[in-house]
Amino acid sequence: MSHGDHQLGIYLSGMLEGKTPELTTDLAGLEERAREVLSPEALGYIVPSAGSGSTARDNRAAFDRRKIVPRMLRGVDRERDLSCEILGTRLPAPIAVAPMGVQTIAHPDGELATARAAAAVGVPYIHSTAAAHSFEQVAEAADGPRWYQLYWPTDQDVCRSFLDRAKAAGYTALLLTLDTTLLGWRPADLDRGYLPFLTGTGLANYLTDPHFQGVDNPIPHWAQMFPNPGLSWDDLPFLRRHWDGPIVLKGIMSADDAKLAAEHGMDGVVVSNHGGRQVDGALAALDALPAVAEAVGDRLTVLFDSGVRTGADVVKALALGARAVLVGRPVLYGLALGGQAGVEHVLRCLMGELDITLALSGYSSQHELSPSALA
């Protein structure tokens, strides 16, 4: 059964039962609808980006500049199989849920709903260090593939404890985010004076950690741990000593940095500019992808995020060298609009559109894609 069959199911429900989707199937249009239900503070935190927003706009423009060139009469399989193995995890399609913190500002169930939706669809849920639910709460809520994203705290005991807890709770791959050792300059939050962590939201992993607990004022204690601009390549052996699964560096935008990741024994990289939330004026992530894939694609697992909205976007990222994509904001929009069901809807639509776009472009599998698929 192909993911594109989800399309037929929607048509049949409409024609035979008079039931139409509660959320739009136009994934690029979810943001406009999510604006109607998110609080001003949540909207300002989730949607806007750093500075003038130029990097976020460029992320989308980079997708729009590249065009798929459909090929005809290529004998595309009627039943297509998009499954793949990424970082030791079997995926039904080359898609994972990007790590996103403080998800309770979008919906009360937050990460629990997102993890349940990812498990229902079979794609990896990536747990953020800045989550509003702990490692253990998410693991108990959803028995699906789980990876962990680390913001490296300045306290090495807390860092080691996070790694130990993630392993114990069944998280199998580690993604170290490199581009957020400090918060970017985000005017939408600054103009409201809004930072959810200062009320304890998004600190669940910290507040439940035995190496963090026992202080009188946990918020100032956290504030001393989060900014960590002094991280360097020399710190990476610490992760290898305390994590025995795949390690991926998230936030790589330079082919030279990708080569350094390979030289330091990493297993993969995520080409990402944090969705434009960190460095205003930075290169669009999709524009950085080809050089990174060419430099290390034969040695490392190259993943991608930043700007993905549709199945066609996924095709473009895969054609330029990504093995899989991480999807962020559309998942949060689905969460805001419909909780777990909303996230499931987004993921199933994304996988369905990816499948149909591939087939209509002349491909039976994402493994057949190359840069020649685009103009």
Description:
- The protein is of the alpha/beta class and 375 residues long.
- It has a single domain (5-373), classed as TIM Barrel, CATH 3.20.20.
- Helices cover 41% and strands 11% of the residues.
- The chain is built from 15 helices and ten strands.
- The chain has an eight-stranded parallel beta sheet.
- Strand 1 and strand 2 form a beta hairpin.
- Helix 5 crosses helix 6 and helix 12 crosses helix 13 (285-296).
- The longest helix has 32 residues, at 329-360.
- It is globular and about 65 Å long.
- The chain starts with a helix and ends in a 15-residue tail after the last helix.
State the gist of this model.
The protein is α/β, with parallel strands linked by helices and 375 residues long.
